[in-house]
């Protein structure tokens, strides 16, 4: 038999309901104790006042009857009549009974306990047949400074009147009824509250299950600006990143397969043609095969360089160096190749700028950017390399002439294997990994690489590198 395991909604509901029940019961007993204490205290004060009034009235009657208790012995009605006079005339009226009132048949309404009237020898003159309680409230009857008797009342905690007992029972029932109704109301209010509070959590749980199952298109409704709302937004951002990475991985594998398939197909065709005798094995055919092998070698090398730069495994031997002279050296090496294609290189650089970096990797960065402009710039165009130096940063700009790219193509220009259509395509012989490697090299030097439209109609690559801290005076 499968045991029922409450979910988070049931747990939160039970936790809130249990807290409400504990609070209600605690309040019930607190109010109950306060009521009982106050009620008994109220009765006690009233009885003490009446005991004092009765003892004073009996003292007057004792003096009126020649200092003798013969008029009172066994005459309960006389005492009740005195008490009744207190009820009609008020507690400040200390006069005895008069002939206008009939004899009462029971203690007045304000009296809450049994009482006894005893003489100076502690013999009971008026009261029930039960023994006089030793812990009762006692008020002496004093005449001319001599105690001639006493009025004794049972402890106020012993309620003897049915009305008081019934009232106490009614209050108990009413109090517990209020607790029960309040608990029911708390349950009715807590259940929708728990469901409402945990609705975003349930959506996140369901979304996480779908995300773990590989459905990266999963999104949750992120409402509100509280912690759950921000968690929902972060979940959507995570799902979007995973979906984008999955698509990039698929594209990456497809691009690698495509890039490898083309030179391999050419090699296979060339070799089959030589094997079948369709093409003779000549130095020209060997050169063609070597060209395809060179293409494959460069692609594999680029993939190796990219993977190492992604993992941070490239060796960086950094030192303070003048990046301006390094850039001039790289541009000088490409100047003849640019001229052979009818392209012009112009430099607009400061006298010097010192950075803390790796000479070989920075030279690789500049070679990739120059090679990129050489391949993807139409004949008769130009490349302007400029630099802007601030107190803590050097910004290099490689701006070439047409053809240009669209805004959508510009956003993806640094993606792996991506090349724009038109003149900037695979026919130029690139693998589409050069800019991706450049991004990693710049990031390893604490900088940033971005692409924008060139004022000459082509593409402008901006490289931001921090200057050497020791030389700029920064910490």
From TrEMBL:
UniProt keyword list: ATP-binding, Cell membrane, Hydrolase, Kinase, Magnesium, Manganese, Membrane, Nucleotide-binding, Phosphoprotein, Protein phosphatase, Stress response, Transferase, Transmembrane, Transmembrane helix, Two-component regulatory system, Virulence
Gene3D superfamilies: 1.10.287.130, 6.10.340.10, Histidine kinase-like ATPase, C-terminal domain
SUPFAM superfamilies tied to this protein: ATPase domain of HSP90 chaperone/DNA topoisomerase II/histidine kinase, HAMP domain-like, Homodimeric domain of signal transducing histidine kinase
Signal peptide: none
GO molecular function terms attached to this record: ATP binding; protein histidine kinase activity
Key word Protein transport present: no
EC primary class: transferase
Region Disordered, annotated ranges: 89-108
Entry keyword Cytoplasm: no
InterPro entries named among the record's database cross-references: 2C_sensor_his_kinase, HAMP_dom, HATPase_C_sf, HATPase_dom, His_kinase_dom, HisK_dim/P_dom, HisK_dim/P_sf, Sig_transdc_His_kin-like_C
Biased amino acid composition, Basic and acidic residues: 89-101
Protein's name in the database: Signal transduction histidine-protein kinase/phosphatase MprB
């Amino acid at each position: 038999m499968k045991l029922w395991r409450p979910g988070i909604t049931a747990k939160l509901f039970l936790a809130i309901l249990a807290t409400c029940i504990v609070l209600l019961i605690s309040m019930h007993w607190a109010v109950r104790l306060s009521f009982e204490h106050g009620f008994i205290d109220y009765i006690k004060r009233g009885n003490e006042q009446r005991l004092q009034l009765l003892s004073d009235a009996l003292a007057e009657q004792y003096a009126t009857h020649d200092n003798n208790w013969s008029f009172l012995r066994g005459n309960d009605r006389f005492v009740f009549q005195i008490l009744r006079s207190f009820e009609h005339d008020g507690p400040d009226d200390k006069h005895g009974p008069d002939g206008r009132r009939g004899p009462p048949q029971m203690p007045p309404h304000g009296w809450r306990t049994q009482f006894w009237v005893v003489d100076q020898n502690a013999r009971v003159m008026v009261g029930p047949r039960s023994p006089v309680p030793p812990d009762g409230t006692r008020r002496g009857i004093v005449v001319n400074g001599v105690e001639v008797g006493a009025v004794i009342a049972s402890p106020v905690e012993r309620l003897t009147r049915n009305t008081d007992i019934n009232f106490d029972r009614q209050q108990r029932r009413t109090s517990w009824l209020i607790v029960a109704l309040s608990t029911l109301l708390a349950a009715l209010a807590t259940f929708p509250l728990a469901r409402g509070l945990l609705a975003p959590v349930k959506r996140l749980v369901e979304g996480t299950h779908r995300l773990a199952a590989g459905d990266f298109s999963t999104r949750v409704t992120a409402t509100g600006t509280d912690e759950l709302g921000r968690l929902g937004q972060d979940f959507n951002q995570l799902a979007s990143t995973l979906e984008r990475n999955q698509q990039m991985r698929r594209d990456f594998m497809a691009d690698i397969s495509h890039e490898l398939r083309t030179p391999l197909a050419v090699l296979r065709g060339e070799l089959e043609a030589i094997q079948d005798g369709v093409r003779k094995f000549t130095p020209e055919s060997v050169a063609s095969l070597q060209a395809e092998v060179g293409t494959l070698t460069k692609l594999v090398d680029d993939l190796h360089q990219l993977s190492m730069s992604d993992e941070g495994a490239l060796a960086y031997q950094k030192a303070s160096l003048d990046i301006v002279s390094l850039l001039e050296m790289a541009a000088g090496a490409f100047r003849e190749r640019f001229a052979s294609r009818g392209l012009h290189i112009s430099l607009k650089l400061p006298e010097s700028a010192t950075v803390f970096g790796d000479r070989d990797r920075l030279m690789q960065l500049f070679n990739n950017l120059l090679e990129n402009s050489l391949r993807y710039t139409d004949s008769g165009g130009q490349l302007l390399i400029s630099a802007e130096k601030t107190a803590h940063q050097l910004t290099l700009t490689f701006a070439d002439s047409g053809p240009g790219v669209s805004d959508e193509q510009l956003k993806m220009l640094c993606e792996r294997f991506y090349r724009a259509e038109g003149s900037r395509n695979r026919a130029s012989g690139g693998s589409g990994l050069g800019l991706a490697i450049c991004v990693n090299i710049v990031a390893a030097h604490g900088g940033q690489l971005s692409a924008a439209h060139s004022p000459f109609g082509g593409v402008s690559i901006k490289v931001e590198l921090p200057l050497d801290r020791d030389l700029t005076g920064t910490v």
